[in-house]
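Q: I'm writing up a methods section and want to include an example of the input and output format. Could you take the sequence below and give the corresponding predicted structure tokens, formatted cleanly so I can copy it straight into the document?
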Amino acid sequence: MARILLAEDDDSVRAFVSRALELDGHSVLAVEDGAIALETLGDDPDGFDLLVSDIKMPVMDGIALALNVARDKPDLPILLMTGYADQRERAHGLDQIVRDVVSKPFTLADIRRIVTATLAGHAEPTRLAG
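A: Here is the clean output for your methods example:
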């Protein structure tokens, strides 16, 4: 299955998403902010199949992370997550970079379905209500 890098500053959300994706057999490396995620991407020789990131994080937010990743690794699919409407609007202009913006809260089934669709090369046909 896929190698997924997860950047999420909330411990409980990070654990929930990691467990959800591991249920599908994915290998998940979870970090607590975008700066660590960017460093991890640069240091990892095996590469990742997907980046899943929260938007609002204290050190480097998901938007800055997505812009850096799109520049350095343009073939890496990116999913962003947010519980804030204003953050979702900030991500709206990144349609060419980000596959989808997942609204929190989401269910285990939601995140698994969206990740599966993204890894299959499809954008989620309908965005979650936010």
